[in-house]
Amino acid sequence: FPQRLATLAATAWEEARQSRQQLQAQRQEVVRLQEQLSRARQDGERWASALQRAQREALEREAMRGAEQARQQELIRDMKGRLLELLREKDALWQKTEGIDTPMPSPASHDAGLCARCRKDFRLLSRRYNCRLCQGKVCHACSVDTGKQGRCCLLCYQQRHPQAT
């Protein structure tokens, strides 16, 4: 009987030792899992903070875009109004000028001291002629004698007589 008791005691001691080892392993596993849980909570808090910051920035950007869009729509409305004003003004001016014959454009400025074509200075020996069509002042070299009608500048003569060019 004592031997059986010794075997049971030895088995109990072995089971107790194994239970202590398992308990210690489980405690280590609990500590490791608690550390992981703590890290996961910290990561979750960081991600939540980053998400809140990103949402706040997105709302700010959306508000800025809305304000910019409102400004652009107001600008477009103003531009359309101005365009309508300009179109009305153009129509009014067109109606005023509809019956007016437009004179032929002058080939150059009407500066009394210079030829309208070659810009030569009129002096004692270089005579000044008035073009009978555009009223420009031209020198002898830049004008054409049209007979009884008088002289006209080369540009007007070429416009009236295209076959001469």
From TrEMBL:
Q: Gene3D superfamilies recorded for this chain?
A: Zinc/RING finger domain, C3HC4 (zinc finger) (3.30.40.10)
Q: Which CDD domains match?
A: FYVE_RUFY4 (cd15745)
Checking SUPFAM superfamilies in the record gives:
FYVE/PHD zinc finger
Q: Which residues form a coiled coil?
A: 16-57
UniProt keyword Coiled coil, yes or no: yes
- Top-rank taxon of the source lineage equals Eukaryota
Q: Does the keyword tRNA-binding apply?
A: no
GO MF annotation: an example: zinc ion binding
| Keywords from the named record | Coiled coil, Metal-binding, Zinc, Zinc-finger
Matching InterPro entries, A to Z? Answer: RUFY4_dom (IPR059036), Znf_FYVE-rel (IPR017455), Znf_FYVE_PHD (IPR011011), Znf_RING/FYVE/PHD (IPR013083)
Question: Would you tell me the protein name for this molecule?
Answer: RUFY4 protein
Q: Which organism is it from?
A: Pygoscelis papua (Gentoo penguin)
